[in-house]
Amino acid sequence: MTSKDNYNELAQQIIENIGGKENVVSAVHCATRLRFQLKDDTKVNEQGLKELSGVVDINPTPTQFQVIIGSHVDKVFKEVIAQGIVNGDAENSETQSEKQETGIFNKIVDTITACMTPMIPALTAAGMIKVILSLSTTFHWLSNESSTYRVLDFIGDSAFYFMPILLAVFASRKFKVNTSLAVIVVGILLHPNFTTWVASGDPISFLGMPIQGVGYAASVIPALLTIWIMSYIERGVDKITPSSLKIILNPTLVLLITAPLVLIVIGPLGNYAGMGLAWIINLLEGKLGFIMVALLAAAMPFIVMTGMHHALTPIFVASFAATGTESLILVAQVCANLAQGGASLAVALKSKDKSVKSIATAAGISAIMGITEPALYGVTMKYKKPLIAAVIGAGISGCFAGIMHVTLYVPQNSVMAILGFSGDKGVANVIAGVLMMVMSLVIPFILTLFLQKEPKNTVSSKEVETKGTASAV
Question: Contact 198/218 with Cβ under 8 angstroms?
Answer without folding.
Answer: no
